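Our preliminary data section would be incomplete without showing what the modeling component actually yields. Below, a chain of 134 amino acids is followed by its predicted structure, encoded as tokens that our downstream tools consume directly.
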Amino acid sequence: MPLLSRWAVRLALIALGVGSTLGALILIQKGLGTLPWAWSGLGAHVELMLIGWMTQFALGIAYWILPRLPGMAPRGNPILAGLAFILLNLGLLLALLAPFRPWPWGLVLARLLEVLGLLLFGLAIWPRIRALKP
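Predicted structure:
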């Protein structure tokens, strides 16, 4: 497994752990009513589970498992793919911090970074998506 995929999967597993913990706290509040502050973590829970866990895990595995290219760079441009993962995680981090900052455009910028990261990842792996030759 390439280093970039290992990092993406590790970060995805961290997001899964933190997001699941937030979800468990929200469920405890819903059932017992003992943690009234837990509902403030709902947005972070959703962000961590959808972007941090599912999306990042899928991209990390896709980078590893898609067919390799012939030549010196079998997985395409690693700098472009690395930049894509960096932008995705910067967007995730900004989305987690946006509710605590007074800047109203924080969440919009977070989404733009995430989308740009996804587009760059698509551009990085595009040459690897091809039909098998019979």
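The chain has one domain: 3-128. The chain has a mean pLDDT of 91. Preliminary results of this kind motivate Aim 1 of the renewal.
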